[in-house]
Amino acid sequence: MILRIMGEGQYRLDDSAVDELNHLDEALEAAVERHDEEAFGPALQALLDKARSLGEALPMDAIEPSDLILPHEGATIGEVHELLADGGLIAG
Amino acid sequence: MGVMKRVSTIFRAKANKALDRIEDPRETLDYSYTTQLELLQKVRRGVADVATSRKRLELQMNQLQQQADKLDRQARDALAAGREDLAREALTRKAGVQNQLNDLQGQYASLQGEEEKLTAASQQLQAKVDAFRVKKETIKATYTAAEATTRINEVFTGISEEMGDVGLAIQRAEDKTEQMRARASAIDELMASGALNDALGGTPTDDIQAELDRMGASSSVDNELAKMKAELAGGSAPKQIGSGGTVSDAVPGGTTSFPAEQPNPGETQ
Fold this sequence. Notes:
The structure holds two protein chains of two kinds. Chain A is of the alpha+beta class.
């Protein structure tokens, strides 16, 4: 699977890595649903750290759609809500 | 569905919508390439904008640092002359300047981070746009319109995602730069109004310096007076007034020749 960390780049992940990330993603989603900013920051950071350590960076000139996309480091709940509401995305 | 999957789905939906609007998928490639080049220009402008803001901030930080250094010197001079009240005033102002400086340093680091990210994004996008141009020509030359669709969908979706991501990164950098500009303008205004300057920079309204200068002048007057008195009296040499030692009661009038109360810096503009 291909994963993108926004503002950073793309990684290739094998299935076991995806399972690990999904587990952390549940915590992130719960924080987003509860608007729990305090839990959200660390949950996102944990997910980003894990993705970076498990993934293999794609070459710079790769053009591949991602199966999973993570918000940029330091993103706020508000920004994630905007992303999920399709806010501000530029059409290609 | 988790956050990661939902965000990816939204990006894909956006790309699909754009694809649906065009009849011959091969046209999509040319159209997309044009927008990629535009975006590339935009990222480069963004990098330049952030760099400009960073340099302006650097300039202001240098000015503030000079002010802090000057206030520090003034505090030492005042203390050496036995004027603890004046030294305290200088140090209080220095603390204010230092606070501004610390604040700007934090902003500076964040702006620098934004510049680095945008520079990396620009290089990455350049690499992808170059790769896209090659793929585009290959697809157009090798496949019929029908065959090309699948290949195009994938490349188009991939590049759209990249462009959406870069577009948002530019927006974030622009927001930060905008905040920084507002802040820099506020500090420029403060400096222009003299609120930060008048204690510093050797301007005529530098009240601490004026006081230190007056003290210097009055102690030399005292010296001369004492010398004349001694000459007239034909007596022994008078006690000299040192500027480095304790001044307390050795100064015959140095501290009483001007009001001890300090002018309010806010009123001196």
